[in-house]
Design a protein that fits this description.
single chain, 136 residues, mainly alpha, two-stranded antiparallel sheet, 5 helices
Length: 136
């Protein structure tokens, strides 16, 4: 059983998967930094300095200055601003990934078209037979 497990782990697919998971984690950090540190300040600038993550609705009727203050006192709130942030992050990440895939597709060489197929051996033999019949 140990040998089978070792053979399974050492196959190329498992190693490739492990590398892909590690790279995905690193790419996730880069994308999160891009969205949080670069794009969200730009979005905030164009929305008049609104920080979406601090927008909420208090279900208990309380008047809280910030979402953090509401959570500290255990207030019941719907943090809809965080949801808006998630939607904006999704749109930004989706657009960036679209641009990356589009650029990657441009660099790939198109597959060469297959050469036209010539006549098969049977087709050639049929033509020869028909020509011989015509000559008689």
């Amino acid at each position: 059983m140990w040998k089978e497990f070792k053979n399974f782990i050492m196959t190329g697919n498992v190693i490739d998967l492990a590398v892909a998971v590690l790279l995905a984690g690193a790419v996730g950090l880069v994308v999160n930094g891009f969205v949080t540190d670069i794009m969200m300040p730009i979005v905030g600038y164009f929305t008049g300095g609104v920080d979406f993550s601090d927008l909420f609705f208090a279900l208990d009727g309380g008047n809280y200055a910030t979402l953090e203050a509401a959570k500290e006192v255990g207030g019941s709130v719907v943090a809809w601003g965080n949801w808006v942030n998630s939607i904006i992050n999704l749109l930004i990440v989706g657009f960036v990934l679209f641009m990356i895939v589009k650029a990657y597709n441009k660099t790939r060489k198109p597959k060469p078209e297959p050469a036209p197929a010539g006549p098969t051996t049977e087709e050639l033999l049929i033509e020869i037979r028909d020509e011989l019949k015509k000559q008689k």
